[in-house]
Amino acid sequence: MKYNICEIFYSIQGEGKLQGFPFVFIRFSGCNLKCPWCDTKYALKKGYKIEIDEIIKKAGKYRCKNVCITGGEPYLQPLKPILEKLKENNFFVSIETNGTIWQDIKFDWITVSPKKQGKKYHKNGYDEKFIKVASEFKYVITGKDDFKFIDKEIRKNIVLQPVNNDKKISKLIIKYIKENPYLNYQIKLQLHKILKLP
């Protein structure tokens, strides 16, 4: 089986609760949303077809056993075969998704990052079936209005991430968290951007 891949690289996880851990990133090509502030626009078009065994080989050349499937939007492609192959090779497999497309697959860690653009698919921007399986939710905050978009019914960890590590927006997030002191809300900056890593 072949997948449409943008790139495979080794770095640290720069976002979310797994921030700071080493990961091999498998970036899938293509996305069903066109967010104006997207920081991986090159993944919308850039890509090449690659056999699943070749993906495993490329991921396996590092000593790291943590893999993050990201995009683009990975759920546009059938994920069960690659997950099974990665688990056969003893990888811890995380995935990042905008949550608009559902596949009933048990990853080790699922980060759902709802976008306003996803409201054309679902009321809250993501398929509610993710509520039970998601490990965390991540909202990219671009301004004050984005706080209204956060689904207040989510009980899992919610990361509020300022777009492009913007300082003014970071202060807005801190103010919002102080005014809404729920234990599942936290601010996280994009560590890989601060450190200028891939």
What does this structure look like?
The structure is a single chain. By secondary structure, the protein is an alpha/beta fold. The chain is 21% helix and 26% strand. It has six helices and nine strands. Strands 3-1-2-4-5-6-7-8-9 form a nine-stranded mixed beta sheet. Helix 5 links the parallel strand 8 and strand 9 (185-187). The mean pLDDT is 96.
- DSSP strand content: 25-35%
The succession of helices and strands, N to C, reads: EEHEHEHEEHEEHEH
Q: Describe the largest sheet.
A: 9 strands, mixed
Which structural class best describes the helix and strand composition? alpha/beta
From the spread of the alpha carbons, the general shape counts as globular
Topology-level CATH name of the domain at 2-138: TIM Barrel
Specify the helix fraction band: 10-25%
| The CATH homology group name of the domain at 2-138 | Aldolase class I
**Helix segment tally:** 6
Rounded mean pLDDT score: 96
Text of the CATH class of the domain at 2-138: Alpha Beta
Instruction: Give the second-level CATH assignment, the architecture of the domain at 2-138.
Output: Alpha-Beta Barrel
How would you concisely characterize the structure shown here?
The protein is an alpha/beta fold and 198 residues long. The chain has helices at 42-45, 52-59, 80-88, 130-133, 167-179, 191-194; strands spanning 2-12, 22-28, 48-51, 66-70, 92-97, 109-112, 136-141, 157-162, 185-187.
